[in-house]
Amino acid sequence: MYNLNNGHCESLRNDLQHVLSLNLESCHSLTDDDFSTLFGFHSVETSTPDLIRVLEPVDDSTPLKLESLNLTRTNIGDVGVAALVVKCKNLKHLYLSHTRITDFSLSLIAQHCSNLQTLEVVGCEIGNYGLQLIAQQFKARLVSLDVSDCYRVNDAIIPYLCFYCPNLERIGLRNTKIPDRGVSALLRKLKFTSLNIEALPITDLQLCQISQLQPSLRVLHLSFCYGISLPIIKKMVEQCKTLSEVHLFGLGITPEVLIELQREGLSIYCD
Predict the structure, then answer these.
(1) Are the C-beta atoms of 4 and 34 separated by less than 8 Å?
(2) Structure pTM?
(3) pLDDT tens for residues 157-172?
(4) Which of 36, 127, 152, 156 could cross-link to 83 by cystine, CB 3.0-4.6 Å?
(5) Cα(17)–Cα(20) distance, integer angstroms
(6) For 1-45+54-134, which CATH class?
Protein backbone atom coordinates (compact mmCIF):
# COMPACT_ATOMS: atom_id res chain seq x y z
CA MET A 1 0.00 0.00 0.00
CA TYR A 2 1.38 3.40 -1.02
CA ASN A 3 0.30 6.82 0.24
CA LEU A 4 -0.03 8.54 -3.12
CA ASN A 5 -1.53 11.99 -3.55
CA ASN A 6 -2.58 14.42 -6.28
CA GLY A 7 0.99 15.53 -6.85
CA HIS A 8 2.09 11.96 -7.50
CA CYS A 9 -0.78 11.56 -9.98
CA GLU A 10 0.27 14.72 -11.78
CA SER A 11 3.81 13.38 -12.17
CA LEU A 12 2.63 9.90 -13.16
CA ARG A 13 0.27 11.33 -15.80
CA ASN A 14 3.23 12.56 -17.81
CA ASP A 15 4.68 9.05 -18.00
CA LEU A 16 1.51 7.14 -18.89
CA GLN A 17 1.63 7.48 -22.67
CA HIS A 18 3.62 4.28 -23.21
CA VAL A 19 2.46 2.24 -20.19
CA LEU A 20 0.48 -0.93 -20.95
CA SER A 21 -0.20 -2.10 -17.38
CA LEU A 22 -0.74 -0.09 -14.19
CA ASN A 23 -1.33 -1.53 -10.71
CA LEU A 24 -2.48 0.89 -8.01
CA GLU A 25 -4.13 -1.73 -5.80
CA SER A 26 -4.63 -0.73 -2.15
CA CYS A 27 -3.66 2.91 -2.69
CA HIS A 28 -6.50 3.93 -0.39
CA SER A 29 -5.56 7.60 -0.38
CA LEU A 30 -6.40 8.05 -4.07
CA THR A 31 -9.71 9.91 -4.57
CA ASP A 32 -11.81 10.80 -7.59
CA ASP A 33 -9.96 14.12 -7.86
CA ASP A 34 -6.64 12.28 -7.92
CA PHE A 35 -7.82 9.94 -10.67
CA SER A 36 -9.20 12.87 -12.65
CA THR A 37 -5.73 14.42 -12.46
CA LEU A 38 -4.07 11.13 -13.39
CA PHE A 39 -6.14 10.84 -16.55
CA GLY A 40 -5.78 14.47 -17.58
CA PHE A 41 -8.90 16.16 -16.18
CA HIS A 42 -9.93 18.36 -13.31
CA SER A 43 -13.41 18.46 -11.86
CA VAL A 44 -15.37 21.67 -11.40
CA GLU A 45 -18.54 22.08 -9.37
CA THR A 46 -21.25 23.97 -11.21
CA SER A 47 -23.49 26.58 -9.60
CA THR A 48 -26.60 24.46 -9.97
CA PRO A 49 -28.55 23.49 -6.85
CA ASP A 50 -27.30 19.91 -7.17
CA LEU A 51 -23.65 21.00 -7.39
CA ILE A 52 -22.98 18.77 -10.39
CA ARG A 53 -19.31 18.07 -10.99
CA VAL A 54 -18.08 18.56 -14.55
CA LEU A 55 -14.80 17.15 -15.87
CA GLU A 56 -12.68 19.51 -17.93
CA PRO A 57 -9.58 18.30 -19.84
CA VAL A 58 -6.24 19.81 -18.91
CA ASP A 59 -4.37 18.37 -21.90
CA ASP A 60 -5.10 16.59 -25.17
CA SER A 61 -7.61 13.75 -25.21
CA THR A 62 -5.39 11.21 -26.97
CA PRO A 63 -6.27 7.76 -25.58
CA LEU A 64 -3.65 5.98 -23.52
CA LYS A 65 -2.23 2.59 -24.48
CA LEU A 66 -3.17 1.05 -21.13
CA GLU A 67 -4.50 -2.50 -21.50
CA SER A 68 -4.58 -3.54 -17.83
CA LEU A 69 -5.57 -1.30 -14.90
CA ASN A 70 -5.89 -2.43 -11.29
CA LEU A 71 -7.63 0.05 -8.96
CA THR A 72 -8.78 -2.50 -6.39
CA ARG A 73 -9.21 -1.04 -2.89
CA THR A 74 -8.69 2.53 -3.98
CA ASN A 75 -11.17 5.32 -3.27
CA ILE A 76 -12.30 5.74 -6.86
CA GLY A 77 -15.99 6.35 -7.56
CA ASP A 78 -18.16 7.30 -10.52
CA VAL A 79 -16.42 10.65 -11.14
CA GLY A 80 -13.01 8.99 -11.34
CA VAL A 81 -14.34 6.33 -13.69
CA ALA A 82 -15.80 9.06 -15.92
CA ALA A 83 -12.27 10.42 -16.39
CA LEU A 84 -10.80 6.94 -16.75
CA VAL A 85 -13.01 5.76 -19.61
CA VAL A 86 -12.27 8.80 -21.78
CA LYS A 87 -8.52 8.16 -21.72
CA CYS A 88 -8.39 4.37 -21.39
CA LYS A 89 -10.36 3.14 -24.40
CA ASN A 90 -7.91 0.28 -25.05
CA LEU A 91 -8.44 -1.47 -21.72
CA LYS A 92 -8.71 -5.24 -21.81
CA HIS A 93 -8.49 -5.97 -18.08
CA LEU A 94 -10.06 -3.72 -15.43
CA TYR A 95 -10.07 -4.39 -11.68
CA LEU A 96 -12.35 -2.18 -9.55
CA SER A 97 -13.09 -4.44 -6.58
CA HIS A 98 -13.86 -2.83 -3.22
CA THR A 99 -14.25 0.67 -4.63
CA ARG A 100 -17.13 3.20 -4.52
CA ILE A 101 -18.41 2.62 -8.04
CA THR A 102 -22.10 2.13 -8.90
CA ASP A 103 -24.07 1.00 -11.94
CA PHE A 104 -23.35 4.42 -13.44
CA SER A 105 -19.67 3.48 -13.69
CA LEU A 106 -20.58 0.21 -15.41
CA SER A 107 -22.68 2.12 -17.94
CA LEU A 108 -19.69 4.37 -18.69
CA ILE A 109 -17.39 1.38 -19.07
CA ALA A 110 -19.89 -0.29 -21.41
CA GLN A 111 -20.03 2.84 -23.58
CA HIS A 112 -16.33 3.59 -23.86
CA CYS A 113 -14.13 0.52 -23.24
CA SER A 114 -15.03 -1.63 -26.22
CA ASN A 115 -12.11 -4.09 -25.90
CA LEU A 116 -12.74 -5.21 -22.32
CA GLN A 117 -12.23 -8.92 -21.61
CA THR A 118 -11.86 -9.00 -17.82
CA LEU A 119 -13.92 -7.11 -15.25
CA GLU A 120 -13.68 -7.53 -11.47
CA VAL A 121 -16.05 -5.54 -9.25
CA VAL A 122 -16.02 -7.63 -6.06
CA GLY A 123 -17.79 -6.01 -3.13
CA CYS A 124 -19.11 -3.00 -5.07
CA GLU A 125 -22.53 -1.31 -4.91
CA ILE A 126 -23.50 -2.52 -8.37
CA GLY A 127 -26.56 -4.45 -9.49
CA ASN A 128 -28.17 -6.19 -12.43
CA TYR A 129 -28.70 -3.06 -14.52
CA GLY A 130 -25.02 -2.22 -14.88
CA LEU A 131 -24.09 -5.85 -15.51
CA GLN A 132 -26.77 -6.18 -18.18
CA LEU A 133 -25.20 -3.26 -20.03
CA ILE A 134 -21.77 -4.87 -19.70
CA ALA A 135 -23.06 -8.20 -21.08
CA GLN A 136 -24.87 -6.57 -24.00
CA GLN A 137 -21.90 -4.41 -24.95
CA PHE A 138 -18.98 -6.82 -24.66
CA LYS A 139 -20.76 -10.00 -25.73
CA ALA A 140 -18.29 -12.58 -27.04
CA ARG A 141 -15.27 -10.51 -25.91
CA LEU A 142 -16.00 -10.93 -22.19
CA VAL A 143 -13.95 -13.82 -20.81
CA SER A 144 -13.75 -13.16 -17.07
CA LEU A 145 -16.28 -11.57 -14.69
CA ASP A 146 -16.18 -11.45 -10.89
CA VAL A 147 -19.15 -9.95 -9.04
CA SER A 148 -18.58 -11.76 -5.75
CA ASP A 149 -19.97 -10.06 -2.64
CA CYS A 150 -22.21 -7.80 -4.74
CA TYR A 151 -25.36 -8.43 -2.72
CA ARG A 152 -27.70 -6.69 -5.19
CA VAL A 153 -26.85 -9.10 -8.02
CA ASN A 154 -29.50 -11.80 -8.50
CA ASP A 155 -30.72 -14.27 -11.10
CA ALA A 156 -32.08 -11.52 -13.37
CA ILE A 157 -28.54 -11.24 -14.79
CA ILE A 158 -28.33 -14.93 -15.76
CA PRO A 159 -30.21 -14.75 -19.12
CA TYR A 160 -27.97 -11.87 -20.22
CA LEU A 161 -24.79 -13.80 -19.45
CA CYS A 162 -26.08 -16.97 -21.11
CA PHE A 163 -27.27 -15.20 -24.26
CA TYR A 164 -24.69 -12.47 -24.81
CA CYS A 165 -21.46 -13.93 -23.36
CA PRO A 166 -20.75 -17.32 -24.96
CA ASN A 167 -17.00 -17.10 -24.25
CA LEU A 168 -17.30 -16.29 -20.56
CA GLU A 169 -15.03 -18.89 -18.96
CA ARG A 170 -14.18 -17.46 -15.53
CA ILE A 171 -16.93 -16.23 -13.21
CA GLY A 172 -17.17 -15.28 -9.53
CA LEU A 173 -20.62 -15.28 -7.90
CA ARG A 174 -19.74 -15.72 -4.22
CA ASN A 175 -22.25 -14.20 -1.80
CA THR A 176 -24.59 -12.90 -4.49
CA LYS A 177 -28.33 -13.59 -4.63
CA ILE A 178 -28.02 -16.17 -7.43
CA PRO A 179 -30.25 -19.18 -6.60
CA ASP A 180 -29.53 -22.80 -7.47
CA ARG A 181 -31.61 -22.61 -10.67
CA GLY A 182 -29.49 -19.67 -11.86
CA VAL A 183 -26.31 -21.68 -11.35
CA SER A 184 -27.90 -24.58 -13.25
CA ALA A 185 -28.72 -22.31 -16.18
CA LEU A 186 -25.11 -21.11 -16.37
CA LEU A 187 -23.76 -24.66 -16.18
CA ARG A 188 -26.03 -25.80 -19.02
CA LYS A 189 -25.17 -22.89 -21.31
CA LEU A 190 -21.53 -21.92 -20.68
CA LYS A 191 -18.24 -23.78 -20.31
CA PHE A 192 -16.01 -22.60 -17.46
CA THR A 193 -12.38 -23.00 -16.51
CA SER A 194 -12.88 -21.22 -13.17
CA LEU A 195 -16.12 -21.14 -11.17
CA ASN A 196 -16.67 -19.49 -7.78
CA ILE A 197 -20.09 -20.29 -6.32
CA GLU A 198 -19.13 -20.07 -2.65
CA ALA A 199 -21.92 -19.51 -0.13
CA LEU A 200 -24.65 -19.97 -2.75
CA PRO A 201 -27.66 -22.22 -2.06
CA ILE A 202 -26.60 -24.91 -4.51
CA THR A 203 -27.44 -28.58 -4.09
CA ASP A 204 -26.08 -31.95 -5.19
CA LEU A 205 -27.92 -31.39 -8.48
CA GLN A 206 -25.53 -28.59 -9.41
CA LEU A 207 -22.51 -30.74 -8.46
CA CYS A 208 -23.77 -33.47 -10.78
CA GLN A 209 -24.19 -30.89 -13.53
CA ILE A 210 -20.62 -29.75 -13.00
CA SER A 211 -19.46 -33.34 -13.48
CA GLN A 212 -21.51 -33.78 -16.63
CA LEU A 213 -21.38 -30.35 -18.29
CA GLN A 214 -18.01 -28.76 -17.45
CA PRO A 215 -15.28 -30.74 -19.25
CA SER A 216 -12.64 -27.98 -18.96
CA LEU A 217 -13.14 -26.83 -15.37
CA ARG A 218 -9.85 -26.32 -13.53
CA VAL A 219 -10.67 -24.16 -10.48
CA LEU A 220 -13.81 -24.63 -8.36
CA HIS A 221 -14.84 -22.75 -5.21
CA LEU A 222 -17.50 -24.54 -3.14
CA SER A 223 -16.73 -23.22 0.35
CA PHE A 224 -19.73 -22.67 2.64
CA CYS A 225 -22.15 -24.35 0.22
CA TYR A 226 -24.01 -26.21 2.95
CA GLY A 227 -26.57 -27.81 0.65
CA ILE A 228 -24.09 -30.26 -0.91
CA SER A 229 -23.09 -33.67 0.41
CA LEU A 230 -19.70 -35.32 0.79
CA PRO A 231 -20.56 -38.38 -1.37
CA ILE A 232 -21.46 -36.15 -4.32
CA ILE A 233 -18.36 -34.00 -3.76
CA LYS A 234 -16.27 -37.18 -3.96
CA LYS A 235 -18.04 -38.27 -7.13
CA MET A 236 -17.62 -34.86 -8.73
CA VAL A 237 -13.88 -34.77 -7.94
CA GLU A 238 -13.45 -38.25 -9.42
CA GLN A 239 -15.29 -37.42 -12.63
CA CYS A 240 -13.84 -33.93 -13.27
CA LYS A 241 -10.40 -35.00 -14.42
CA THR A 242 -9.37 -31.47 -15.43
CA LEU A 243 -9.80 -30.05 -11.91
CA SER A 244 -6.55 -28.76 -10.44
CA GLU A 245 -7.89 -26.70 -7.51
CA VAL A 246 -10.94 -27.13 -5.25
CA HIS A 247 -11.89 -24.93 -2.27
CA LEU A 248 -13.99 -26.64 0.41
CA PHE A 249 -13.80 -24.43 3.49
CA GLY A 250 -16.59 -24.75 6.05
CA LEU A 251 -17.82 -28.14 4.84
CA GLY A 252 -16.42 -30.34 7.58
CA ILE A 253 -13.74 -32.02 5.48
CA THR A 254 -11.92 -34.34 7.90
CA PRO A 255 -8.34 -35.58 7.33
CA GLU A 256 -9.77 -38.98 6.38
CA VAL A 257 -12.09 -37.48 3.77
CA LEU A 258 -9.29 -35.29 2.47
CA ILE A 259 -7.18 -38.37 1.81
CA GLU A 260 -10.05 -39.91 -0.15
CA LEU A 261 -10.45 -36.78 -2.27
CA GLN A 262 -6.79 -36.31 -3.11
CA ARG A 263 -5.38 -37.37 -6.43
CA GLU A 264 -2.37 -36.44 -8.51
CA GLY A 265 -2.51 -32.92 -9.91
CA LEU A 266 -5.32 -31.76 -7.61
CA SER A 267 -4.90 -29.22 -4.78
CA ILE A 268 -7.69 -29.15 -2.16
CA TYR A 269 -8.10 -26.23 0.21
CA CYS A 270 -10.19 -26.72 3.34
CA ASP A 271 -10.24 -26.08 7.09
Answers:
(1) yes
(2) 0.91
(3) 999 999 999 999 999 9
(4) 36
(5) 9
(6) alpha beta
